[in-house]
Predict the structure.
Amino acid sequence: MNQLIVNPMTVSGAISGEVPVVAIIGGGVSGAATAFHLALSKQTPAPQIIVFEPRACLGKGLAYDTTEPAHRINVPAARMSLLTDEPDHFLGWIAAHSATAGDDDALRPDGALFPRRSVFGDYVNAMLQPLVTSGAVQHRRSAVAHVLRDGAHWLVIGEDGTRTKADIVVIATSHPPPVAPGQLQAVLKDHPRFVPDPTRAGALAAIRPTDRVLVVGNGLTSADVIAALALNDHKGPITAISRRGLRSRGHAPVAQDPTGDFLTAPALTARALLKNIRTAIRQAALDGGTWHGVIDQVRAQGQALWQVLPLVERQRIVRHLRPFWDVHRFRVAPQVEAALDTAIAEERLEILAGSVAPSRIEADAIHCMLRLRRSPAIIEKTYDAVVVTTGPGHGGILASQPFLAELSRNGYLELDPTGLGLSCTRNSEAVGPVTGVTPSLLIAGPLARGTFGELMGLPQVTDHAVFVASRIAECLQAQTPKKA
């Protein structure tokens, strides 16, 4: 492990031990929500909360730091809130601040509101700003270069050179961006219209209105890309290819309550869980409903269901069922669904099940060999642009940021055996191959998904932030010296 000699004159934080310091790495929704609820927890003494986030605003992160007008929240605003006991708080904030003024398409005919994603980022940032102004939360505009153990504390070194000694460190970063298939990356890395990460600002700007586009992946990001291209008057043909050719589904035509019971006699295998879900969907159809209410119930009970499944069954779900879960669980906004439907109806969009075989470039034209699923056929198609939307690069989490790689080398972190995030306990404490459980190193948000299961939707992320904040408060309380 690293040995470090610390000059106390260069270190801010809990040197005297009088005020505990909590360093939260990542200021997206997970990190911002954790800081927000910890600051409101009335902990005595109140900890110094420092959020390391290079972006100008807290709460936006990768998901909500977008100016693309086609990017919308994918659930109604009435179901998104930073306050777990006020589910319509975001909706009220929108009304109070006229946050959707000028966006006539935000309000749907059924009365549901689907604003642009940037609006939710603005909301979370607005909730944090009073705490930043008061000093209850500090926003350190720097990425983190190193996290090192220093006796009973942690030393967090920012890329700006600042050093902070902390009692507790919370890792609240996001998953790495999509990973382009190796052969595509090698062949297309210098092509002007190869987009390996469409989440970057202006990533689609180089795609021309009549370009033939190949989108590798078929999830939410793929749908966002196709909707964004449509909004920019792209009229060229688009092929979206994924291993199973599953397109993200939309919302139910009429709002439905969650239905089904998956906890009274919980499934202990992936096969049994799938059978239970299918049975509930058939019953919902007989009752005049759709699959939407059933999937909503599975989502609501998801963390409890995940806990009772043996590890091998969790791994089977990730390996075999996750793509089917994702396209039903993560539904596209109605505006995005309409863009996909229009493109299909106009025969501009084809959705294929398969993979991309060896490709080549000739005079800027990209010739791709497509290997179709359950078919010996390999077809060749020519494109002007290729966009990768294969989803987060889960396998590259530890290599995605230097401080994560460093913590891994020093034995504090390892990947969760399901492959969905970082290994942690049910108290969100990091688990490492050398150090075991480290109570002062916590994992917040989607990177804890392997342990908690359903931890990607905003309600679950907010609930988990409240949980992590409570764990921090308990940990600090245990560290506080008792007065005689």
In short: Residues 176 and 216 are 17 Å apart (CA to CA).
